[in-house]
Amino acid sequence: MNRVRNTNLFFLGLVLFYVLACFFIVPNLPRVLLEGNWSIVLGQMIIAIPVMIYLIIQKGKPLSYVSFKILRITDYCLLFLLTMCIIPVITLINAISMMFVENYLATELDNMNSNPLILNIVLVALIPAFVEEITFRGIIFGGYKESKTKYAIIGSALLFGLFHMNVNQFCYAFVMALLFGFIYEATGSILSTIFVHFVFNSNSVVLQKIMFLFEKLIYKMAETSEEYKELAEQLEESANETVTYADMLLTEKIGMIMSLGIPAIVGGVLAVLLLGFIAKRNNRLVHTKKLLYSFVGKEYIPNVVTEKEYTEDINESKQSKVFDVIFIISVIICIAFMIFLEIG
Predict the structure, then answer these.
(1) What is the pTM of this model?
(2) pLDDT at residue 317 in the model
């Protein structure tokens, strides 16, 4: 049985374990494990347990397809800047999706405001970045590399988005995962995607904490000021509203998209330039260019004189198919469970 088939069977098992855990295990756990901090840990354990079982069955072989190449400090600095540039793009996608569905993550973060900042960073950024990257950019993307690289990126990104099990997170998680795939190929190391994932999640945690402290200050000032009291009442009303933009007027939606669109375009362009620079520093610019060209069905021919860098044949005819029957079954289960959660 080839690597791709094994990988698809692994994800199918992961999805089935997740669904069965939600129906039969989670409801029978002590209530304390289903609230606040423990619920975050529980969610990651539901991913980690099938991963460990799969690695034991495969005797650790899937990790042999994953590169843990050590990067330079300057690479991490550039990756940090790249993440900051891509955040406006993700913010735009998130805002558009919130016109139709609820933002569950924002609600979840609200419930963790009383935690110390460092604890929230560990729970929401550090643990998920490690567990999810080892799972999706490690085991799944690494397994799919037996097929064409572009299909490996698309397939692993689709599964990453779907596994969030809600429409809002799927929209931006899918785009993020596509970017993660390119970052992995540009650096040749999963440590880069773990770092970018960590920075992205940490940004949400830090901003949420700043907003919480700001609101706390407003409520305190409201005790002695009528002006702040009115502002506090407005904050109280907005806190009770569902996190969605569905009720906005069409003109308001257009205005919001335009205001978020400009930073997204600028940030996206800068992110692409940074990605190319990072790839060049890691002697993988030719490889990254060939990968980008393959996405539009073209072949990049490097200059044999000036572009003597690492590359691999990403356009060869590989027989392993990422999108097989097992893959499709897993996708259908994810979508069905997502719809069940939305309706329920």
Answers:
(1) 0.90
(2) 52
